[in-house]
Amino acid sequence: LELVDAQLGLITKQEMARWGLESFVGESAAMRDVIGEIRKLQPVDNTSVLIRGESGTGKELVARALHFSGRRNGQPFIVVNCAAVPSDLAESLFFGHVKGAFSGAHGNRRGYFEMADGGTLFLDEIGDMPLPLQAKLLRAFQDGSFQPVGGSSVKKADVRILSATNVDLKARIGTGEFRNDLYFRLAGYEIELKPLRERSEDVSLFITHFLTQFAGELKRTAPQLSDGARQALMAYHYPGNI
Predict the structure, then answer these.
(1) With contact defined as beta carbons under 8 Å apart, do 66 and 23 qualify?
(2) Closest CA to 68 of 34, 101, 41
(3) Which of 110, 135, 234, 242 could be bridged to 196 by S-S, CB 3.0 to 4.6 A?
(4) What share of the chain is helix, strand, coil (3-state, %, to 5)?
């Protein structure tokens, strides 16, 4: 367990370079706006940020850029896929547990919240978080306090919360599936990512980027595409999926 925690907290200069603003591809107005918003948030390390966009638009990339280009870059960046968290283990996973708290709890375990102390907790697919857990997370988000399962003492952690969703949270608030107070706690600032089909001027840049990346991995020279081949690739996509 200690080894896993150490690996989660390991931040290297290579990671900072990989997830900095230079990792973004695109020159469209929409992408320039996103980069501008990230720059605006760099000196603000406590503001919670909600990143909205369809699947595949780069929400985790934005979250990593916010962390690795900000003041918390030397601290842990913990990623949690809320859609994959089992409801019966959710409280233990987020807040940890003490030995003997339940069957199978053979020792103390730190939760995601404590692991992220000093750094960032990124909640991906926040719209799929179970409703009962939302109330418990709200308290932790408000004052940084939490109580491990089976524990008798309250702990504190300094954690920045970044979250992402591909669903309309306001619509889920209307149906009672998402807490309104949690939404406003998460959305201290909002960033919206446009799908590639709405910024077609960036498609050519992506083609060049991936050709260069794959050629580098294969230790080959990146091919130079003719204008005709490039236009054909730009036209060959499935509408609605990018």
Answers:
(1) no
(2) 41
(3) 242
(4) 45, 15, 40
